[in-house]
Amino acid sequence: MKTRQLARWTAVLLALMALPLASGAAPAPVPRTGQTVSYRSGDDGDLQPGVAWPSPRFKDHGNGTVTDRLTGLMWSKNAFPDGVKTNWSGAVDYCTESLLAGYDDWRLPSVVELMSLLDYSQKTFLPSGHPFLTPQTEYWTSTSLSSGSAAWRAQVTLGGQLISAGVASTFAVWPVRTVSGAVGTLVTIR
């Protein structure tokens, strides 16, 4: 069941990542999943479709922030800042009010942004050697459901599952920001 659910949500994630093409915008590069072991010809480990990950993938700035050189997203190095678990509104507010490392444009990540961190070849689902501190099991995303009474949460250490939850539920918060001029490109971070 878990394998089928993971495959379904991976397909949803890839479909969401392809949305810019449907709107007539320039193609957005889709990263590889990280799967390198092949169990049969034609599977993800065999084909390894998508953009190769830069090496090293993450740049630790030494100021409490880490930039993903694949996506151009800057994350709080502490994946559980201030030990915050809150409802969805509180999660949005916490991120937008954050002044981590002197930046004032932090936000709650979208479902696609949060899931972009995952490495499907790892049991913990974060890439091997990642620099993040205190990763939690479940995080809020900024992506709400059409009803407005629920939003997507991501279980990043339990198989990369996406699950809807009522906005009054409490989950961890992980702030993100976009590095200027880095959207949709591989990023050179010095």
Describe this structure in words.
The relative contact order is 0.20. The strands form 3 sheets. This protein has a 4-stranded antiparallel sheet with strand order 1-2-3-9, with no helix packed on it. Strands 5-6-7 form a 3-stranded antiparallel sheet. A two-stranded antiparallel ribbon has the order 4-8. By secondary structure, the chain is α+β, with helices and mostly antiparallel strands. It is 20% helix and 19% strand. It has a domain at 57-178: Mannose-Binding Protein A, Chain A (Roll), CATH 3.10.100. Strand 5 (138-144) and strand 6 form a beta hairpin. It has helices spanning 2-17, 19-22, 44-47, 88-96, 111-115, and strands at 58-60, 65-68, 73-76, 85-86, 138-144, 150-155, 161-166, 171-172, 176-178. The protein is built from 5 helices and 9 strands. The chain is globular.
Uncertain parts: 11-16, 18-22, 183-190
CA-to-CA gap between the ends?
Answer: 43 Å
Can you summarize the main beta sheet?
A: 4 strands, antiparallel
Strand content: 15-25%
What share of residues is helical?
10-25%
Shape: globular
- Topology-level CATH name of the domain at 57-178: Mannose-Binding Protein A, Chain A
- Mean pLDDT, as a whole number? 83
Radius of gyration: 16 Å
- Quickly give the CATH architecture of the domain at 57-178: Roll
Class of secondary structure makeup: alpha+beta
Query: What is the spatial order of strands in the main beta sheet?
Result: 1-2-3-9
